[in-house]
Amino acid sequence: MIQEFKDFIGRGNVVMVAVGFMMGVAFQGVVNSLVENVIMPVVAIPFGQPNFDSLIWTVNGSVIMWGSFVTATVVFLLTAVAVFLFIVKPYNTFQARFGEQPADEAGPTEIELLTQIRDQLRSG
Fold it and tell me: Is the separation of the CB atoms in 35 and 42 below 8 Å?
């Protein structure tokens, strides 16, 4: 059992997943800071405040804080945009320019394979 555990932990993919997770957690602070300290203040320019938390609706004494939901949704969308623009797009551009190009070793087409099978059946 101990050897199985050592084999499991020693696998490269487990280590890579752990490293990726830790880098993601560390990078979360950068993305959150970008959204909260740079992008949300820009959102505040037309609305006068960087969040919508003050928007509430009261019904029979129950306070519905729909502004907090709007703020959370805006932060989520802006975070997704920031990740896309600052991580995904540059990574895709880098991969397209410098990434491994797939080998152009295309095998026979379906028609060619069927022709070979037909010819073998005819000959023997």
Answer: no
Spell out the residues 6+ positions from residue 43 whose beta carbon is closer than 8 angstroms to its own: 50, 74, 78
Give the integer Cα–Cα distance in Å for 94 and 24. 19
The pLDDT tens digits of the residues spanning 43-93 come to 788 877 778 888 899 999 999 999 999 888 988 898 888 888 888 899 889
Tell me, yes or no, whether 74 lies in a domain.
Answer: yes
Q: What is d(CA 106, CA 87) in angstroms, rounded to the nearest whole number?
A: 32
d(CA 53, CA 72): 9
What is the domain-level CATH number for residue 83? 1.10.1200.120
User: Could you tell me the two tokens for 70?
Assistant: 């709007």
